[in-house]
Give the backbone structure.
Amino acid sequence: MGLQWGDVDWSRSVLTIKRSRTRPRYEHRCQPHCGHKYAGHCPNRVLSRPDFDTTKSRAGRRVVPLPAAVLDLLRDHAKAQAVQRRTAAQLWVDEGWIFSDEIGRALNPRTDWDHWKKLLKAAGVRDGRLHDARHTAATVLLLLGVHERTIMSVLGWSTTAMVSRYAHVLAPIQSDVASRLDVLLWSSPNSAMNDRT
């Protein structure tokens, strides 16, 4: 949610991640008290935490390769956003966010969460947290045989312990390990040759 169009390097097909969206936090500034329990509902609220911050760790600031299909989706998204910009006319707030509301402002984390839940439902996928997508990404990279260090760099982790926490070993991976061990430990070079003929 902290991505801006300037973070996309179209010629190199990479995305630079350097900031993250924080949940807004507000303070009451009403006199007398407005009666709202939460400061976020106060009509005179004042933002007490910045909307954006740098990533949580140095490893979080990273360059991620983008598959051609994702670049195509981003191009389509840029075209749709250009239509929104024309529709909003003078109301458009040009802050350069890739994911913005209908007038160009950064999305509220709650809005993003709502969109995620609707997407899961429309796709017929079981309900899950948005954060679960990181588990899926790590597991898919593991299934593809991507090295742990590369998984760490793509997902912005500083230790290999995170890979074991997020990347779940699935049956195909376990079967592949068993097959490799079978060939390595119990197959003689002659029997392997006989199997091929």
